[in-house]
Amino acid sequence: MRVLVALLGSVALSLACLAQAQPPSAPNPGWTAPNGRFAASFPEGWGVIAAPDAPAQVLVHFGQTTTVVERKDCFVQSQPMPAPAGQAAINALVASWDSDQVRRNGAPNATGAQVLHFENIDVSGVRVASALIEIDIEGQRARFHTRQFALAENGTAQYYALHCLVMDPRPNGSADVEALLASLQFTTRDSP
Q1: Alpha helices in the chain (DSSP H)
Q2: pTM of the model
């Protein structure tokens, strides 16, 4: 019973946040990182969710909730990381990440986690580790999509992750999330 109450509370909070979201100003609005180094486009009907209690490293939280079982949440997190200077050296480090490393970075405490797909690719000169992980949430299977990368910034490295959680049992339930993840674009430069 406590589990059901906690799940319903979480869904209610997501619905309340969505009700406060600003309506999109364009058919496919986007979000650009504060440093201007990368951007992504929202699927139609999505918006930024106000998340005043989000940890400081969360840059943005956006999503769509249509019913209790159809929930899609994405967020971008950021934190400094020890890494060699320069984008080329950082790309080499990210290229060494395997599916287990990416799973631990994205869903470290998830129960029943199973990596369904993993790739480590170059996107506009930035190495991106990408995974689709199936996890259990309160007895329901969910899909956790993650894109993880690091950027050279002011002589240091900054780790970023674009994580999306999809609780939608329909066969095409992740299509809009996959489109959002595919829209990730970078400005390739080492910042001064």
Answers
A1: 2-20, 87-95, 99-106, 175-182
A2: 0.76
